[in-house]
Description:
It is a single chain. The chain is of the alpha/beta class. The chain has helices at about 1-10, 20-40, 60-70, 85-90, 95-100, 115-120, 130, 145-160, 170-175, 190-195, 195-200, 210-240, 245-255, 260-270, 280-295, 300-315, 325-335; strands at about 50-55, 70-75, 90-95, 105-110, 135-140, 160-165, 170, 180-185, 200-210. It folds into 2 domains: about 40-210, Rossmann fold; about 215-335, N-(1-d-carboxylethyl)-l-norvaline Dehydrogenase, domain 2. The longest helix has 29 residues, at about 210-240. The strands form 2 sheets. Strands 3-2-1-4-5-6 form a 6-stranded parallel beta sheet, sandwiched between helices. It comes from Miscanthus lutarioriparius. InterPro entries: 6-PGluconate_DH-like_C_sf, 6PGD_dom2, 6PGDH_NADP-bd, HIBADH-like_NADP-bd, HIBADH-related, NAD(P)-bd_dom_sf.
Amino acid sequence: MMAGISSFLTRRLPPFPLAGTAAAAAAAMSSSSTAANVSYRPISPDTTRVAWVGTGVMGQSMAGHLLSAGYALTVFNRTASKTQGLVSSGASLADSPRAAASAADVIFLMVGFPSDVRSTALDPSTGALSGLAPGGILVDMTTSDPTLAAEIAAAAAASGCSAVDAPVSGGDRGARNATLSIFAGGDAAVVARLAPLFKLMGNALYMGGPGAGQRAKLGNQIAIASTMVGLVEGMVYAHKAGLDVAKWLEAISTGAAGSKSLELYGKRILERDMAAGFYVRHFVKDLGICLSECQAMGLSLPGLALAQQLYVSLIAHGEGGLGTQALILAIERLNNTSLEKDG
């Protein structure tokens, strides 16, 4: 019984340093007490300050839901102008991730690449963990490397904080409508405590320990990649067969070929709307991480590899800033046709 209690306390509270003076010991006790009090405080607009780093296509809408729910919000973005909408609505602007974290109990990251995640979270002078007080929580919602997620979780624990990897699926529409799927990895109790915040953005499912959220999202990207290839190939076939592609999309949408990708992107493709809900360059990054994971596992996924190469071809044509529906352009080029020109 006593061994179980001792194990619980060791796991829940940050370790006390071996202080050489009574003052140092007292400071450690105070820090640990603060961390424990913060860790068990219910999350609500009255008790919880929130920060958000990365206010791009997805992040701006997601952070906006927290602000609308009454949470005190501090924001940071490398391009400060992208925070203007949130600042105009009442958010405070910080000059670094560290400054944002110092003003928050929970800080969210929604940035571009694993290198951005690493610097934003772990940089000793400007990173979020360097500013987050003991008991604070860092939530990375970027699709990133699972091993980096585990590294951040370990660094957070060493600082008396917690870290959760919680990448999302659902695109810009899901972000705007608060209907995102959220894949959460980390300590189960911490994820459960974040529920009031997650529910403002969508539906969160606990996937396992640190890095499990990222691996769940990578599996999601693998499924989407081949689905997108199938969708655009089907559209090109219907077009060359002389069918009305809009009617064809309507016809298949309620059958076995129906999919979220068709729902989100079919009409956009027909209207030649290639604006990014999710950037091609970010999808290529995700698929690259997937391929690296597969290599480490000794796993062969040829559909994933093909989709990655098709998306890489878009970057070669200078189209990395378009949305993932721009895959239609790669298939059109392969076949010397266009739904637009031949329509």
